[in-house]
Amino acid sequence: MEQQVDDVYAYVMTRYLKEQNDSKFESDAVISRILLAGGFTVEAEQVYEFPVSLHLPVHTSVTLGRTQCH
Are strands 8-20 and 62-64 parallel, antiparallel or unpaired? Predict the structure, then answer.
């Protein structure tokens, strides 16, 4: 069975410590949104791949769960 897909995006996200009302909590934010494919019809039993590459500044912090790498 076919299915219509509007758009496919990849998001670059970051997690940061936010202060509000004398409280601190982690929050997520979108750094960049990349359109990988515009509207199309997905065919049954088909595999779709959307290659993507992007350049981040060399000093961009990377997080994986609660681990942070520099």
Answer: unpaired
